[in-house]
Input
Amino acid sequence: TQLLEQSPQFLSIQEGENLTVYCNSSSVFSSLQWYRQEPGEGPVLLVTVVTGGEVKKLKRLTFQFGDARKDSSLHITAAQPGDTGLYLCAGVDNDYKLSFGAGTTVTVRA
Amino acid sequence: EAQVTQNPRYLITVTGKKLTVTCSQNMNHEYMSWYRQDPGLGLRQIYYSMNVEVTDKGDVPEGYKVSRKEKRNFPLILESPSPNQTSLYFCASSSVFTGGEDYGYTFGSGTRLTVV
Output
């Protein structure tokens, strides 16, 4: 059983559409991270959110950390083919251990 | 360039033949970790190390060994590989989490291991 549940598992949208990926847990984390992984490469850190209720923007990507620090969402506005990839959320506990969700595979069609 | 380097990128081996996957980081990070990635299961931690000579089991340590004799290196050892260890392996490193928003793991490019 995954400590962090991501939904949906797969997402295929047309260029220009918006999308949201969710990451939920019953555990409280000291911080939560989002990574993007492209085929044949390791995950690359997108953002770390630390404060409950925090919202961070990275160009067209908006990340939100839940008030109770148990869940997070990633919203992409006007998706582009370059956004295609596997999106992973990861919760950091007090011992610095990262627990990953299974990931959401996003495909943006041109 | 700050990076985590894993070798080899691809490896095909036979059951029972000992192998080592090397991992090296040039960022003076205290924390290093090994993960395996399998379809539908995501990234699962095998072993981690908080600093030199300090290692601990992750979620799926069976069949693996690690060592941390130097800060920059964290090799993964499979003493007697079996087909269920066929997977994509990642090494990662980070500084100690101090609550900063720049905290994050740097991952290597992965090692795809096939055990036949």
